[in-house]
């Protein structure tokens, strides 16, 4: 397969905008950080992974803050600091998640709560923390990350799939509350994206065949394909898009 062309769209409305991305140190999140920085946005991101975060900040000019998103108080403090330093956050990308597999028969109440905390709870509290800043900015765009896994009835990670289904409910449940303040909120639903982690952990020859059978389009789905949609949804070009799920999966579900 020939290497895909880099993203070509430029969104003037993103230049100078304060963008906040969760889970930006690796995977799709790292590509999001680079893609928004390339649009000349003022990008800040949080992640657990300190070394990867720092090195991405060095190469992109984005600001990195180490944060475990289960600590939503710290997340809110960081978001307040970002607003003070860069101007009010007007784009929030709730990207962070953890798809660690688990057998439902072995899930304890504590592990269940942890899966919800790592995959769902922080997204709501990031939105809550961003709201006053988006009001100050005169509006905003929130992009929540879903997953096609639960559409596909994927087993072995109920805490994750339940959270990802809830993200879509949360998006629709907040769209009307936020719409009056000119704040848009959408879910971006990726298919199976070939990040280094996915390739290393899950995608052997058999899974490659499964992906090829599943997708209508036979090319590998890459982080930049997801970024293309995220940039659009964040930009003013998407000014009348809210409350929806936008699926980028090569035509699988
Ligand atoms: N890769 C895929 O195939 C795929 C498919 C469907 C949906 N998605 C969704 O896209 C988004 C990005 O996926 P990805 O594959 O890049 O994920 P990933 O697991 O590779 O990366 C997630 C990032 O979030 C960070 N993170 C995890 N827990 C955290 C915590 N408690 N505090 C702070 N940071 C934390 C990780 O360190 C990592 O940098 C996720 O929401 C994921 O559910 C991905």
From TrEMBL:
This is SDR family oxidoreductase. Belongs to the short-chain dehydrogenases/reductases (SDR) family. Keywords: Oxidoreductase. One of its GO terms (molecular function) is oxidoreductase activity. PANTHER family: OXIDOREDUCTASE, SHORT-CHAIN DEHYDROGENASE/REDUCTASE FAMILY (AFU_ORTHOLOGUE AFUA_5G02870), SHORT-CHAIN DEHYDROGENASE_REDUCTASE FAMILY PROTEIN. The keyword Oxidoreductase applies. It comes from Henriciella mobilis. Pfam families: adh_short_C2. The keyword Transcription does not apply.
């Amino acid at each position: 397969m020939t290497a895909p062309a880099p993203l070509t769209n430029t969104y003037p409305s993103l230049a100078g905008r304060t963008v906040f991305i969760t889970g930006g140190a690796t995977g799709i999140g790292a590509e999001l950080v680079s893609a928004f920085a390339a649009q000349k946005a003022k990008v800040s991101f949080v992640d657990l992974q300190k070394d990867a975060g720092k090195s991405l900040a060095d190469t992109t000019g984005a600001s990195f803050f180490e944060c475990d998103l289960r600590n939503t108080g710290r997340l809110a403090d960081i978001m307040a600091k970002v607003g003070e330093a860069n101007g009010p956050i007007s784009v929030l990308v709730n990207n962070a998640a953890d798809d660690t597999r688990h057998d439902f028969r072995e899930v304890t109440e504590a592990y269940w709560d942890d899966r919800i905390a790592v995959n769902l709870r922080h997204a709501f509290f990031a939105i809550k923390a961003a709201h006053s800043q988006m009001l100050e900015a005169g509006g905003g765009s929130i992009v929540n990350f879903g997953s096609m896994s639960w559409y596909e009835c994927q087993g072995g990670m109920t805490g994750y799939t339940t959270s990802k289904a809830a993200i879509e409910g949360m998006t629709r449940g907040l769209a009307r509350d936020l719409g009056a303040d000119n704040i848009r909120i959408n879910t971006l639903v990726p298919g199976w994206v070939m990040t280094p982690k996915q390739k290393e952990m899950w995608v052997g020859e058999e899974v490659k065949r499964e992906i090829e059978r599943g997708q209508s389009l036979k090319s590998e789905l890459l982080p930049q394909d997801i970024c293309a949609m995220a940039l659009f949804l964040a930009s003013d070009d998407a000014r009348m898009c809210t409350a929806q799920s936008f699926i980028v999966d090569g035509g699988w579900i």
